[in-house]
Design brief:
alpha+beta, about 25% strand, four-stranded antiparallel β-sheet
């Protein structure tokens, strides 16, 4: 009768099964429910925190473990940890319709929140509200993908929304300090990446404060480091250049 004890019931309700079909056979792993999405989003790095057991099953609920030969044929290895990682990455998380709907709704809201935090109306420089972004996502019939991270999907949403509304990534405000020797040549290389130059001061070195698209930051950083051999600097003054207040209809 121990299977009906409350502790066992709690333990069993937290099992999440991730399933994959390979070589005509079904393989499953037993995970902790709230950890699978964390692993896929990169928030959880410890495999032991995700898996209830390192065993690979043909049927988790019946406790039927997969045969070694079948694993080798399907995955090219019998290393259970490596196979678990493959199933985690490519398998389908088995959840009830109600749970799936709840998860997708939460992800939809999270995506809208990321977009609202990162974007502005380019004309007014004011941010959009989360509710307005949610309505815009519904208008373009955006479909949430459960196996992709919310951050990846937010970037996709921004691209799609640009076709139907005035929206852009909020600019970063940066301070650049370039050695006098390389300043003129380097400024010409950086010019296509700069949206607005707010101030420019040339004394013993060139100091500029400018606004750039966040997507250009890495390229600028590498360019300055390589061209100046580490003598130039790039400093983030603010992550978002926005006017106060929310953008409304």
């Amino acid at each position: 009768m121990s299977i009906f004890t409350p502790t066992n019931q709690i333990r069993l309700t937290n099992v999440a099964v991730v399933r994959i079909k390979k070589g005509g056979k079904r393989f499953e792993i037993a995970c902790y429910k709230n950890k699978v999405m964390n692993w896929r989003a990169g928030a959880e790095k410890d495999l032991d925190e995700v898996l209830q057991t390192n065993s690979v099953f043909v049927n988790v609920s019946k406790g039927q473990v997969a045969k070694k030969d079948d694993l080798t044929k399907a995955f090219g290895t019998d290393d259970q940890t490596e196979i678990c990682k493959q199933i985690l990455a490519k398998g389908e998380l088995q959840v009830s319709d109600k749970e799936r709907q709840s998860q997708l709704e939460t992800m939809f809201r999270d995506i809208a929140t990321i977009v609202a935090e990162k974007c502005v109306n380019p004309e007014t420089k004011r941010p959009y509200t989360v509710n307005l972004i949610e309505r815009a996502m519904k208008d373009i019939h955006y479909s949430v993908k459960a196996n992709k991270s919310t951050k990846q999907q937010a970037l996709e949403v921004i691209r799609q929304l640009k076709e139907s509304m005035e929206i852009q990534r909020a600019h970063m405000r940066l301070r650049l300090v370039l050695p006098a020797k390389e300043a003129k040549r380097l400024k010409e290389k950086l010019k296509p990446l700069l949206q607005v130059v707010e101030s420019e001061d040339f004394d013993e070195e060139l100091e500029m404060v400018c606004l750039v698209d966040p997507g250009c930051f890495r390229e600028m950083d590498e360019l300055i480091r390589c061209e100046t051999r580490g003598k130039g600097t790039l400093e983030v003054l603010s992550l978002k250049d926005v006017e106060e207040g929310d953008e409304k209809f």
